[in-house]
Amino acid sequence: MPTHITEWLGNAYLDYNAITLGLDALAERVRSENFNAIVIVLRGGTFAGMHMSFLTGLPVYFIAYHRADSSVEWIGSAPNAQAKVLLCEDSAGKGTTLLNCRNFLRNAGYAVSTLVVCKVPGALVNPEYICIDWKNDDLQVLFPWNRYRINGESRTDDLPDHEYEHTAWDLDGVFLDDLKHDERDNDDLAGMLARRDEMPLGSYAPMVSPGDVIITSRPEIDRERTEKWLRKFRIDIPVVLREEGDVAENPEFRANWKGKKALELGYTHFVESSSEQALYLAARYPELRVTWYNQGNRILVNASKINKLG
């Protein structure tokens, strides 16, 4: 199961719009410095470096950094000797990637300035160009290209990025039909739950993968009957249920609880059967890749909450 190595305190997710806006704002300054080339640190610096290349017309070159031995190498050709270059990376932090790459270029005789999408507290390098100077050290900064870092196991860097991506699934409406409002009888709760227990596996039920999980707003007191139903259809993944009182009946509260639980456990994707809850999930937790599961028809969801005026 995915995990967070330390207690999850939250993420600061920087989306493509915010990043692009920051780069656009720096473009005039970069053009005025008469650089000869952009050097991109693969892979984190790719988006920033390529975008800045379009904004400035500068040619791009690539270097790779190897954490195991702190070595740096050119991927392809190198700029002309003694060129003035702009080194691009996604972040300036407590790690040594940016520092060692800058030293590699300086030792080779280049005049080097650095550009990053985000600088975090305690950074070893103070870049000349910063899109976002992040001050809160309690939150993990995420970019669109490294959402997989939600899964704490990714810190080892042993696997391809996509293999750290795992899905949290809603239950009712995904694996079985959700009870319709007119089928819910609060005066006969036992009978209603018994009918749900006898429901068949939905024809649209998905195939799950090892490492996936079910996160449902069913209460913990329903665990035995829920796990019995899952075993009947050989759905062999863990299920997380809510404690009594954790979630109100309001769909927004349910969605917020599900998203928070998914991120606490290190899941990168959430599949939700309710379109309303899917919208709340996407708006509250943009770092999650949210899918509305409409009886097997999957629709990726992106949303933003509008603040009330006045």
From TrEMBL:
InterPro entries: PRTase-like, PRTase_dom. It comes from Ferroacidibacillus organovorans. It comes from the Bacteria. This is Phosphoribosyltransferase domain-containing protein. CDD domains: PRTases_typeI.
